[in-house]
Design a protein that fits this description.
Elements lengths: L1 E5 L4 H12 L3 E6 L14 E5 L8 H5 L4 E4 L11 H18 L4 E5 L11 E2 L10 H18 L4 E7 L2 E2 L13 H11 L4 E4 L3 E2 L2 E2 H13 L6 E4 L5 E2 H12 L5 E4 L9 E2 L2 H7 L6 H14 L2
Parallel strand pairs: 1-2, 1-4, 2-3, 4-5, 5-7, 6-15, 7-12, 8-11, 9-14
Antiparallel strand pairs: 10-13
Helix pairs in contact: 1-6, 3-4, 5-7, 7-9
Length: about 300
Amino acid sequence: MRTLVTGASGYIGLHILRELLAAGQEVTALVRSRAKLGPFADEPRVHVVESDLEQNGWIVDALLHHDACVHAALIWGEPETEPEARDGAVVAQVFHAAATAGVARSVYLSSAAVHRPFAAVMGEDDPLRPTDAYGATKACGERWLGRACEDSSMTGIVLRPGPVVGPPAFEGGALRIDRRIAEMVDLAAAGRPIEVVDGEGRQLSDVTEVARAVRLLTEADQPEPTYLCVDCEILPWERIARMVVEVLDSPSEVRVRPRDEAAPVPRFRTDRIEALLGGPTNAEAALRAHLRLLAEGHR
């Protein structure tokens, strides 16, 4: 099986690349810099294409003779560059090219952020009304995928992870972390107090499970159109904060404010992703490994 991956040198993209190779697939990696692929750059089953996704007219040829396309890239610049317009144009181009090239299946790495503002219980089929630029950008990408599939025989699948945690795919590889967790790390490194609300938390996503879900979706016989790829259980922000303090060996105090009991803690349904992966996931160990690496950077 041959799969093309955009954003293959990014944090999640490298994990997807490793997962696809482990499953025996041949992979075309679309990157701006071959050097960022690390050891995968010399893998015989990886064909590297160095190019800019915002340049038009070449991607159809790159997609020819591929069974699947995984779009994991995100075009994101400064606010004044209209990031949502730039990324939307790229998504539209990639999936139109995939359909034109005869690719049978495309997988889009979206985000649970499309569900903001969060409700008490959320599922894949709920209507989307995102209120922030990132969520709106991802929702726009989902619609472009749907449009490309409507105009062709291509199957489109959307994967929506939550905050993704875990170490890089290899030592020195790309690493990214959720904004709120990064803020906690900075506060702990400075020895300042960390404030959280009692009972609030998020369903996290282990980066290796996200990559496994992507690989399964390139191969599944009858996949669902959309999957929320998050843990079944909510990990409280208080526990995350205490984990940060512990890993960084910080003197920071974790201050817990009372929560308005009238406001339920938002939760995503996970039955669909559990059916795909064969059971629930738990990203706590991945988060701890991630924090250890971040702690080293503060020492």
